[in-house]
Design goal:
47% of the residues lie in helices and 15% in strands. The longest helix has 30 residues, at 278-307.
Length: 719
């Protein structure tokens, strides 16, 4: 085991037939991987890629906002990331009068930059391998006992490395399904300000229609700046703070790209599960993904109906809608690609080979027998779990009402002090204010009615909350009729104290469990959550523990079965580098996609006034004149908007820099192509492409379209 991990860490290599697959830890690049990077076109040393003692590219890469990647591009702390990564901050800074989401915004001076409350960035300082320490503590343990102990051990190690007084945070992260553990130490900066954003019609051009598709013409970028105290240390927002002086920042190339050029991404891919079992693949394609897609489809439909009617509603619901829509289309595509590529059957073939090897090895020979039983026991309830998370709790009102269970516990549990009760009520009051600000009652009421009806129709009757649908039928009518649920939902919205300030304030003043339990919104949420939590959550927890145990043992066995086969760890929101080339591709017979898209394509797609394909009048005017300045692609006599590479990325990589062979920024990664949406579970070596916004389009939008030459002057341009 120890030998296998040593090989994995220090001799990491790519499979020969999967030259661009892999999200590699830049601090642990083996010589063979580095050699492959050089063969692809890398001109930098390993120390220039990652160094603890000297400044390197890794020092320019940040976790942006907890779910994206950003990069430092100037010596004054300027950050480039995706428009959809800055979306929440852009929306929060906007109003109907100053609608930066719709119209765009660029600060012409630092005094105009807008504080982004709650937004922070994290810089990686160091990592250390703590596998021996963790394994020692977990020796001989399995199941729930191991899971509980592992949580305690990781928390203790994290606390040892962290120093809140210096804004240092530490996270111990499992790799290879718990066969290895590394601790990552980060420095968090909390004063981050919005510097620039294109209009949404540029930053989200193509909307849901073009999402996960190539060709693509989206200007998916936004610009922020990180501020620090006068001694360059992390500090809360203060007008006295100054722009961060970074350890390293990326030069920006406007030389352009060509087919075959080296391309490298740095960033924080959020999660893959490429060592998933055949059981997991089948559960995803049969149940989990289709249920999620169907439920999100309904939520999006009801939200969109209201958003297109009113700019204020669009602004209100935009962040939530964007998040729901993104993975609605993803999981639909993932299912189709997994089935098309026969991934289930391929996994079964791999597992058959493993079982043949495992004969006579007690630690491994019964894994799949027991693993199959665990899936068989959970499968009847898997759809129920999705319908709770994506259906019942897909209604914002229901989700907020469900959160009031904390108040109910404070009011009913023995031993809860008056101070704790008061704290629970104050917390609920604060969350209610935020909920009401984001709530669109018309769309939510329809979501509430539709998801309740879908649960009745699609979930086995034996799993329904006892008495709920019987009571609904007795009061409102036939459970197969939409009108029944619409009448019921109307009464929920009219009757709940959550929307009634007078009733709510009276409850806060004199809180009783009885008053809360009688509230129709809380009663509805409570019926489903308690039913799930008491009967089915324990089954899921048991399944999850077993699934993790068997997954860890299977991967341990795979490494012993193939001691010279070097594997990269699944993505887990730790810093990774992937590399490949700018490259065209042929998705199907008689169709070949170029490696770039241009402004000509934008104008071809442009539909004045359209929700997804409108464009600012100024952009159309400049493009019609081909007023592209120094950003023009001379070979095409046009402005390149986006390009594709063979890099291996996933969610979390949004905003990642695309870097050429000499370490210069040439684009921002923001999406993947539909033909390879199986990538979380299976990498497609032929069709996988990363979609990137060309840095020349970004700079043109800032300079020519936005008139913010001050931002351009900050950059180190390579011409």
């Amino acid at each position: 085991m120890k030998k296998c991990l040593f090989v994995i860490l220090l001799s990491v290599s790519l499979f020969r037939s999967y030259a661009d697959e892999g999200m590699w830890l830049p601090m642990l690049l083996g010589q063979q991987v580095y050699n492959d990077m050089v063969k692809k076109g890398l001109k930098l040393t390993k120390e220039q890629l990652y160094s603890i003692n000297k400044s390197s590219i890794k020092d320019a890469i940040v976790i942006f906002g907890g779910g994206c990647t950003g990069e430092i591009v100037s010596n004054q702390g300027l950050i480039f990331t995706n428009h959809h990564c800055g979306y929440g901050s852009i929306t929060a800074a906007s109003s109907v009068e100053k609608n930066y989401l719709r119209d765009g915004f660029y600060a012409k001076a630092k005094t105009e930059e807008i504080p982004s409350q709650g937004l922070s960035v994290q810089f990686l300082l160091k990592i250390e391998d703590v596998t021996k320490q963790v394994d020692s503590a977990l020796s001989g343990l399995s199941g729930a006992e191991r899971a509980k102990k592992q949580g305690e051990v990781l928390a203790a190690i994290s606390a040892k490395y962290a120093d809140p007084s210096k804004s240092l945070e530490a996270v111990v992260t499992p790799f290879f399904k718990g066969n290895q553990f590394l601790v990552f130490v980060y420095e968090r900066y909390k004063d981050v300000r919005l510097v620039g954003t294109p209009p949404e019609s540029v930053g989200k051009f193509g909307g849901d229609t073009d999402n996960w598709e190539w060709p693509r013409h989206t200007g998916d970028f936004s610009v922020f700046r990180v501020y620090a105290s006068k001694d360059n240390k992390p500090a809360d927002y203060n007008t006295a703070n100054i722009p961060l002086k970074p350890k390293y920042y990326l030069p920006v190339s406007i030389k352009g790209i060509k087919d075959g050029d080296y391309a490298m991404t740095y960033g924080y891919p959020g999660g893959t599960n490429r060592y998933e079992s055949s059981y997991g693949i089948k559960l995803s394609t049969d149940i989990s993904n289709p249920a999620l897609v169907a439920l999100r489809d309904i939520r999006l439909k009801h939200m969109f109906e209201q958003m297109k009617k009113d700019p204020a509603v669009k602004l209100q619901l935009a962040p939530s809608y964007a998040g729901i829509a993104n993975y609605w289309k993803f999981y639909d595509g993932e299912t189709k690609q997994l089935l098309k590529q026969h991934i289930y059957e391929k996994k079964q073939k791999d597992e058959a080979a493993f079982l043949q090897w495992a004969k006579g090895k007690p630690e491994f020979e019964n894994i799949f027998n027991e693993w199959g039983k665990a899936y068989e026991a959970w499968r009847p309830y898997a759809k129920h779990r999705q319908y709770i998370n994506e259906g019942i709790l897909g209604s914002p009102l229901t989700a907020f009402a469900a959160s009031l269970a904390q108040v109910e516990r404070a009011l009913t549990m023995t031993g809860v002090s008056a101070a704790d009760q008061k704290k629970a009520l104050e917390d609920a009051n604060t969350r209610r204010t935020a909920f009401l600000a984001a709530e669109n009652k018309v769309s939510d009421q329809r979501i509430l009615a539709t998801t309740a009806m879908m649960f009745y129709s699609d979930i086995d009757k034996s799993q329904h909350p006892i008495g709920f649908y019987e009571n609904l039928k007795g009061t409102y009518g036939d459970l197969k009729e939409e009108a029944t649920y619409k009448k019921w939902a109307t009464d929920i919205f009219n009757g709940t104290m959550i929307f009634d300030d007078a009733k709510w304030n009276a409850f806060i003043k004199i809180p009783t469990a009885e008053a809360l339990q009688k509230d129709p919104a809380f009663a509805y949420a409570n019926a489903f959550i308690k039913n799930y939590s008491s009967k089915y959550l324990p089954l899921y927890q048991t399944f999850n523990v077993k699934n993790n145990d068997y997954g860890r043992l299977y991967l341990k066995g795979i490494m012993q079965m193939n001691p010279t086969k070097i594997m990269y760890p699944d993505a887990n929101f730790t810093m990774r580098v992937s590399f490949g080339n700018v490259k065209s591709y042929q998705p199907r017979d008689a169709v070949k996609y170029d490696f770039v898209c241009t402004m000509k394509g934008v104008l071809d797609k442009y539909i004045p006034g359209d929700y997804e394909f409108d464009m600012p009048a100024k952009l159309v005017e400049l493009a019609s004149k081909k007023d592209y300045g120094q950003y023009i692609d001379k070979q095409r006599n046009d402005l390149v908007t986006c390009f594709i590479t063979t890099n291996d990325i996933t969610g979390g990589n949004s905003g990642s820099p695309v870097i050429n062979g000499t370490g210069e920024l040439v684009g921002l990664a923001f999406d993947g192509n539909y033909e390879a949406l199986s990538h979380k579970l299976s990498f497609d070596k032929d069709l996988n492409r990363t979609i990137c916004v060309d840095i020349r389009y970004v700079l043109w939008c800032i300079d020519k379209l936005g008139g913010a030459a001050n931002i351009i002057q900050e950059l180190k341009l390579v011409k």
